[in-house]
């Protein structure tokens, strides 16, 4: 099992969460909530209003999201879903645990108790330079105050 941190449309209550609970795509077990230890720019960009975490450590906000344990099948699905490695790149990042629900081995419990876990995160280094000038968010909600409605893949 691998740990993945999601901050956008794959979170609970968001448009693509259905993929996280579709066992035909693999297993994803919710572990808790967290936020990036380092600051990153989270922007909503492109004609489909997609959330992107730009891989520019030290700029932006501590981005909030959810921590999941996923099996190899789900990780492969997420790589494909996120257009990895062209659109997003899957990298390890340190995530501060905000609330932990995860049950598991002693190693998991100890990491959570210390407050920091390493998770794969889909961020991007391949973006138009003007995206750096977009407003930065600390969390994403597809129906948030930003007023930028996410366009589902089925509607593109």
TrEMBL record:
Database matches in CDD domains: GGCT_like
Gene3D superfamilies listed in its UniProt record: Gamma-glutamyl cyclotransferase-like (3.10.490.10)
Annotated Gene Ontology cellular component terms: cytosol
Keyword line: Lyase, Transferase
Classification via Pfam families: GGACT (PF06094)
Active-site feature positions: 82 (proton acceptor)
Enzyme Commission numbers on file: 4.3.2.8
Domain Gamma-glutamylcyclotransferase AIG2-like: 4-123
A Gene Ontology molecular function term of the record: gamma-glutamylaminecyclotransferase activity
4Fe-4S keyword on record: no
Any one GO biological process: modified amino acid catabolic process
Catalytic activity line of the entry: epsilon-(gamma-L-glutamyl)-L-lysine = 5-oxo-L-proline + L-lysine
SUPFAM superfamilies assigned to the protein according to its UniProt record, in alphabetical order: Gamma-glutamyl cyclotransferase-like
Function: Catalyzes the formation of 5-oxo-L-proline from L-gamma-glutamyl-L-epsilon-lysine.
Similarity remark: Belongs to the gamma-glutamylcyclotransferase family.
Protein name listed in UniProt: Gamma-glutamylaminecyclotransferase
């Amino acid at each position: 099992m691998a740990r993945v941190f999601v901050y956008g449309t794959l979170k609970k209550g968001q448009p693509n969460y259905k993929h996280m609970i579709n066992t035909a795509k693999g297993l994803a077990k919710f572990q808790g909530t967290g936020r990036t230890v380092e600051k990153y720019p989270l922007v909503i960009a492109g004609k489909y209003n997609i959330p992107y975490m730009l891989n520019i450590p030290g700029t932006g906000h501590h981005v909030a999201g959810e921590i999941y344990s996923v099996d190899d099948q789900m990780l492969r699905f997420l790589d494909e879903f996120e257009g990895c490695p062209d659109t997003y790149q899957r990298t390890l990042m340190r995530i501060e645990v905000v609330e932990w629900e995860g049950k598991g081995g002693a190693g998991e419990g100890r990491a959570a108790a210390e407050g920091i876990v390493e998770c794969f995160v889909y961020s991007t280094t391949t973006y138009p330079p003007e995206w750096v000038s977009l407003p930065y968010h600390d969390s994403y909600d597809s129906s948030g105050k930003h007023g930028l409605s996410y366009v589902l893949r089925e509607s593109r």
